Amino acid sequence: MEALQDSRRWIGTLLVLAAAFLSTGCLNQTPDQSGVFKSKDAGDSWQAIPDLRGEDGDRPDVFPPLQATAVGASPAKPDRVFAGTEDDLYLSNDAGKGWSLITDRLPDAGAVDVQDIAVLTSDPDVVAVAGVSNGYGKVFRSTDGGKSFRAVFTGADPQRAMSTVVFGQGRTLFAGDEDGNVFRSKDQGGAWQRVFSTESPVSALAVSGPHLFVGTFDRGVFHSADSGNSFENADEGLGDRSRTVWSLAVGGGSVYVGTQQGLFRSTDFGKNWRELNNPDMFRGALVQAVAVGGDTVYFASNAVMYRLSANGQGFIPRQLDLARSVTDIAAVSSGTVFVSASDKSLEGTGLFRDGLPVLQSGVAPGN
After folding, report:
1. pLDDT tens-digit profile of 158-202?
2. Distance from CA of residue 238 to its chain's centroid?
3. Is 363 within the bounds of a domain?
4. Is the residue at 218 inside a domain?
5. Which residue segment(s) compose the domain that 326 sits in?
6. What CATH number does the domain containing 221 carry?
7. What pTM did the predictor assign?
């Protein structure tokens, strides 16, 4: 039976790639376009920003390199986009037409390995960046739209990344690390306390009102209904093979979790999960990124982007030209979405530490 399921998955993968080939053309006849992509038509088409297919073929002087690891934007100011790599942080104020290298705005950071970017929806001038700088996991925060940053959290152990960051209600900020800890600041980074700890690395965070969801590498999902004061397991229905969580997002009254074995949705705050397996060719695939924009859900498996409606139907696959892996998704509306991507496989994009994945978080519009 398992052999039959594996063969179906291989057939499904071939069908997805065939559909992507028909929709995007021959993937080997365009220059490298990994980095940051934008879609203005709900994922029907994608454009590298800035478009690298110029007549002279030259790459712009300032543009996120091929190994983009994170992207962040807010529906309140959709033209302002942040992008991160294994070494630098970039900013665009015109939806990706032009970029500025802003790593030097991070205090004492000659380089920064960006793992996650969060933009506060209610105030897009407030931005948080999680990653590694000067050998320590750190969280940086800006309150002026990226013009300046200050370090608001530094991990205790060297070479252990702050893997994910997300804004909660009011002035609350949550951050997770590779050691399995979740920290909370009620004043956007002024003072911190550890509110959750497990033996598995924290791979993703998502917030909806007082509800906080924590994704872990091999222990499934945890849920707090009181902004991090208490937690409970929330992985009923995920199954043992889906307890490796790569991504989380909330929106439209649902929670979405991307796992090692597919995409799942819960409508009861994680008490029960249902696998979204339409079409069947997608069943069991690794989902490394998921985001909700308006009433539209976007998710990625390797370098194939999918869109589905709020009822879980309408999967549309689109291959990103020459990219081998999507690393993060920032959906600013139902129709406009930004994606960071790499021309390396997942294992080569800087998303792994000691063999364990460290990925990005999702936050619903309006939080």
Report:
1. 878 899 999 999 889 999 999 999 999 999 899 999 999 998 999
2. 20
3. no
4. yes
5. 2-357
6. 2.130.10.10
7. 0.85
